[in-house]
Write the structure tokens for this entry.
Amino acid sequence: MRSTSAIKLLSLIFLLGLPEATIPQVLDADGFVEERVSMVETQIEARGVNDARVLESMRLIPRHLFIDESLWPRAYSDRPLPISSGQTISQPYIVALMTELLQPDEHHIVLEIGTGSGYQAAVLSKLVRWVYTIEIVPELGQSAEGTLKRLGYDNVTVRIGDGYQGWPEQAPYDRIIVTAAPEEIPQELVEQLKPGGRMILPVGSQRRGQDLLVLEKDQAGNVNTRQTIPVRFVPMVH
Ligand code: SAH
């Protein structure tokens, strides 16, 4: 598969008469394009995530650049990966599923709780107007901010703090995504959601287990919550 597509591309390059110097770039801009394309096809689309914008963003964002270089060979594998401070970056499928459930739109202002590596924020930054993201561990927040800036995701603002309280100064939000699990739904976050807004969050304990919830607030401010799948996130510090 790999060699067939490479041969096709090479033939195209020769047909078009492109200089040979462009060959590596055309084949693979950052060395992991094929891994990302395959990750999207086999881990994400195969499990039923089919929002074209979400898939495109997942094909685009260089997941390996959000983790330690020693883990690059596993960057596009079907599992969560360690980042520093004992935290983890979610499995690609879970990032894709949560992003799809969020129903992001290019006009949206989004709040993320649990910046971690900054990967989820980067995926969202391609799909919405602005991402505000809060991380409680200062070293993680600072490192994510550096990565996001270096890679040019300039519609993301990182803040160090306790996300349980939300970010009232920028509220209300069209969408809220929580990537650490509280034991109960944080009411402060519900209050900071716009009418017509939506929040995706894992809720539960390590012992009882957690469920991924979709919470919707209608125009009158009524809240409706439904469970999707069981998940396993790091606990939200509270
Ligand atoms: N979204 C991240 C992964 C998140 S891991 C990514 O794409 O890499 C969960 C993160 O939530 C951890 O970094 C943890 O430190 C953070 N966290 C836990 N409790 C928090 C709280 N109360 N406020 C903000 N961040 C919190």
